[in-house]
Amino acid sequence: MEIAAASPQHDGPYPTIIFNHGSTGIGRNKSLYRRTISPAVVANYFTNRGWMILFPQRRGRGKSGGIYGEGLAQDGSGYSCDVDIAIAGFERAIEDVDAVVDHLRERPDVDQSQLAIAGVSRGGILAIAYAGMRPNTFKGAINFNGGWLGRACPSHEIVNPNLFERGASAGIATLWLHGSYDQYYRIGHCRKNFERFTAAGGQGKFVSAPMGHALMFKPALWKNHIDQYLDSL
């Protein structure tokens, strides 16, 4: 598995965050599968804060081996709206994060007492859910514009809250950063996901920022929130 990394200038071991990438839009353009996703704006923020950041590329993405298959329809039409297919794709992604955590445990440059997980879009919901599905692994979880299925699929109203609820048992505070006019996930839907999460016992803070799905690339809208969040860990 390809894992791009960025670390602070000083010597480690470092507090470390795993940052999970999203999907590829509607899933039809296979050339996008092989792009390594490691946004410099995110890397620079965390390394300047003294954190090492890892950008794993899940199976079939970037330079990772295997075939990409996170809920794609068999007819090549892109991501499937079928609930069972979508959730099976999510569970495959969970297996990939398990492999990343195993790798992280073997790295001498990682401060094993200071681990966090984050992600954008599909990576955001993956971060929240994984923290609950694998409790006592991470001290924090950050979600940028998270969701598994977009609003083009009516089943997103079933799949997304179901998966977010899996994170409720993490026992840690989480941070949810959502664009108020995201083209994939309406802000009302995102708030309902958060309410479902907290009703199930999850802990966290929900932030709505005046931005779309590219919120991750606008640190002026989230830097202060993550500063406060990291200080609290």
**What sequence of helices (H) and strands (E) makes up the elements?**
EEHEHEHEHEHEH
- N-C termini distance: 29 Å
Indicate the mean pLDDT. 97
Rg, rounded, reads: 16 Å
- Estimate the strand proportion: 15-25%
Enumerate the spans where pLDDT stays under 50 for 5 or more consecutive residues. Answer: none
Tally of alpha and pi helices? 6
Structural class: alpha/beta
Topology:
Layout: E1 3-6, E2 14-20, H1 40-48, E3 52-56, H2 83-105, E4 110-120, H3 122-133, E5 140-144, H4 156-165, E6 173-179, H5 187-199, E7 203-209, H6 223-232
Parallel strand pairs: 2-3, 2-4, 4-5, 5-6, 6-7
Antiparallel strand pairs: 1-3
In short:
With 233 residues, the chain is an alpha/beta fold. 33% of the residues lie in helices and 20% in strands.
Give a structural overview.
The protein has 233 residues and is an alpha/beta fold. Helices cover 33% and strands 20% of the residues. It contains 6 helices and 7 strands, in the order ββαβαβαβαβαβα. It has helices at residues 40-48, 83-105, 122-133, 156-165, 187-199, 223-232; strands at residues 3-6, 14-20, 52-56, 110-120, 140-144, 173-179, 203-209. A 7-stranded mixed sheet has the order 1-3-2-4-5-6-7, with helices on both faces. Strand 5 (140-144), helix 4 (156-165) and strand 6 (173-179) form a beta-alpha-beta unit. Helix 3 (122-133) packs parallel to helix 4 (156-165) and helix 4 (156-165) runs parallel beside helix 5 (187-199). The two termini are 29 Å apart. The mean pLDDT is 97.
